[in-house]
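Running this now, will post back.
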Amino acid sequence: MSEEKTREIQGEKVKKPKEDKKSYEAVVNIYTSFNNTIVHITDMSGKTITKVTGGMVTKHSRLKANPTIAMFIAKRVSENIKDLGIKSLYFRIRAKTRNPAPGPGANAIIKSLSREGFKILNILDTTRIPRGGPKKKGGRRGRRP
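Update: finished.
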């Protein structure tokens, strides 16, 4: 020990063994419709870590699906999961059933979380698409104006 102290005094830097912090992975489930944005973060086994919605960030119901509000959602999520040592994220984006594209908040959340310093491992679209399914309403001749 006394040798290490003398080396530091003489100007030589002694490398201390770094403590390896474990980096954990999590799954970010994003549900975006044109009325709301819901972010649900789970660990790899499916246990809930945190859940933030548009209504928790803003009280104006017309703004819940806004990309700006989605950035605030991502900021709140990152505050919650940085303490747990999570560094890598898998993304699952889901839109309303039959919608061709997710709502406006999904891209903003991914962009904000990547800027916060999280590593994006995978982005997956899990929107449900009916294969046939029940008969649409409107009768034999369809809906008429």
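Helices lie at 2-10, 54-57, 67-82, 105-115. More later if anyone needs it.
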